[in-house]
Amino acid sequence: MIQIGAYNRLKIARRTDHGMYLTDGQDEVLLPRKFIPEGIGEGEQLRVFVTTDSEDRPIATTQRPKAVVGEFATMQAKMVGAHGAFMDWGLDKDLLVPFAEQFRAIEEGAWYVVRVELDTKTNRVFGSTRLGKYLKGDVRNLSEGQEVSLLVTDVVPEGARVVVDSAYFGMVFPDELHERLRIGESRRGYIKRIREDGGIALTLSPMGYQGAVDESPRIVERLRREGGFMAIGDKSPPEDIRREFGLSKATFKKALGHLMKSGRIEQTFHGIRLKENGNGKP
């Protein structure tokens, strides 16, 4: 069965004036002439994306959408019409986000994180910015300290809202935002805390001793760029440490301890210094 809103590997069945008909052995779908690769003929296979045309008929394309059904992607609103907002998702036919599927009113030219979905009654592919409908509330499979993927969906005074592992909503609070995040940005993060209500608080910095050890080469590299010395140490204010290294004070202190124990740096009253003439090697 040909899947709408997904990639399909289909065989070329026949050629017509309008293009080539592709088949999975049961159903057929038209690949318009402008998308036919040069030198390909009947009986060969093609990987195509299948969507619907303006008359809701299945249609194949060799263009690559930013996301398929069930995925998220960052898209720009090209225009707002009578039925909703039309988003640029990489195909000639724009993706409609109906008004009923908008978390807040979409503005032309702005960027949004969009979930691609399929209306199984009409076989129409549509978009939604009401992301919570498609995310899980059960967080029992998650654990504190776990490394996860983050997709930034909104940046507000309370912090950055993110989709966690394409399945959960989470929040990076201001005390963990040591750099500016952008809507649509993908990052690696770590689960800092899971609240009783299922809310997920995240950090961008690795957690625990091993996480601090993994950050230590970055401290050494920064010291090299600064000529081997920086006027900062484990007694410095947390905001100074976060500004300079993007780390919490606790993680920074663990990383310094590891570097001092390995003989790569020394800490003085005035700051931290690379040992061995600044090469950072034990």
TrEMBL record:
InterPro entries per the UniProt record, alphabetical: CvfB_fam, CvfB_S1_st, CvfB_WH, NA-bd_OB-fold, WH-like_DNA-bd_sf
Gene3D superfamilies per record: Nucleic acid-binding proteins, Winged helix-like DNA-binding domain superfamily/Winged helix DNA-binding domain
Residue stretches making up the Conserved virulence factor B-like winged helix domain: 218-274
Conserved virulence factor B first S1 domain sequence ranges: 4-63
Stated family: Belongs to the CvfB family.
Protein name per its UniProtKB record: Nucleic acid binding protein
Organism the protein comes from: Fimbriimonas ginsengisoli Gsoil 348
Organism phylogeny: Bacteria, Bacillati, Armatimonadota, Fimbriimonadia, Fimbriimonadales
